[in-house]
Structures are given as C-alpha cells and as structure tokens.
Amino acid sequence: MLVRVFYTRFFNMCRANMILLSQSTVMKALAAKSIPIPASLDMYFLDSEYPARDDITALQAVMESNDEIAHLEEKANQLNDAMAEADEAQQTEIQTSLEAIYDRLDQLDASTAEARATTILHGLGFTIAMMNQTTCEFSGGWRMRVSLARALFLEPEFLLLDEPVSLLSFILSAGFHSCEAHLYVSLFIL
Fold it and tell me: Residue 55 domain-assigned?
C-alpha cells in the first residue's frame, strides 16, 4: 500500500491492484486503530449521514458531539490517579498524555461551543432558520453536512471520509474553505 503525503492538509492513499481490500475496510481499520498508528493520533471517521430525528435540531446535533469533554475529563482523572503509583518513566509518559488532554479541553471550550457550532454550520451553507430545523426535515445531503459539521466541531487532527463522493464537490468548494479559516484538519480520502 502506498501512501502519498503532500504538504497540504489532504492525504491520498493508493493501493496496488493486486491487493484485494475494500476502501471501507481500510478506513474502518484506520479508525479502529487496527493498523499500527500512534495511539495519540486524534481521528474522526465520517462514514454516514446524521440520522433523521424529530427531537433534535441541526445546531443541537452538532453541539451534542461535544460529549468528548466528559470523556476527556474522566480520562484525565484516571491518569491523575495512576500518577501516584507510577515510576519515573511512567510519570513522564502520563504527564505528556495529561498535557495533550488539557490542551484538547482548552480547545473544546464550552463557553464558545454554540458560537463555533453556528459558524461551522453557516460555513456549510445553513441559514439560521435551517440550524433550528429538526434533522428529520433535511434530505440526506443536508444530514451529511450535519455529520460533517459534527466532525469539524471536534477539530480532529485527521478526518477520515469514507465514500466521500457526495461530499467531495462541496468540500473542495468555497463552502468548506469558509470554515477552513477557523478549523485546521487533515482529510484522508480513499
């Protein structure tokens, strides 16, 4: 498998014809970190549109993706507890992990969450009225934009897009670039 990395935020993976792996399988393996990659690498795997629900608006759907804060705080507490029983080498490793967690928590500042979510949705073509519509009122393409907004809201280091054909033209259009000024993410497209 050849991986070409360019000095942009886009990555392209090519596979030889003789290797019979589906692209979705490779993406799922990357997302599950079944392929040896650093555990600290922050990835978001976007493989489907947001479900049609009548109990949540597009803005709420983006904001609910912020469950990462609770997960990170729990992980930080576990690491802090482990620090007391760790030897010096382990303490250094734990400290590095804690610094990364606290940096991420700062990045996910809850006080600016709604403003960030609104900015992202606006950049993806949503009007204020659309942001307040329930997700069941949107077509599949608009629900895919909600999924993309959720991913961008979390600002992962790598955004894995599986079967991005429906998103490619939009991602490469001005809509995505209007978000890009606020969000720095690497795309990995098969």
Answer: yes
By CB atoms closer than 10 A (0-12, 13-18, 19+), residue 60 is: middle
- Whole-angstrom distance, CA of residue 122 vs CA of residue 116: 10
Q: Provide φ and ψ at 77, rounded to 5°.
A: -65, -40
Is residue 90 in some structural domain?
no
**Residue 50 lies in domain:** 2-65+113-189
Kindly state whether residue 108 falls inside one of the protein's structural domains: no
Q: Please tell me the predicted confidence (pLDDT) of residue 11.
A: 47
Flag whether 102 is in a domain.
no
The pLDDT, as a whole number, for residue 163 is 58
Looking at the structure of the chain, the number of domains it has is 1
CATH number at residue 31: 3.40.50.300
Given this model, what pLDDT does residue 167 score? 53
For residue 13, the one-letter residue type is M
- pTM (whole model) above 0.70: no
Positions in the chain whose pLDDT score sits under 50: 1-12, 14-21, 165-166, 168-169, 172-190
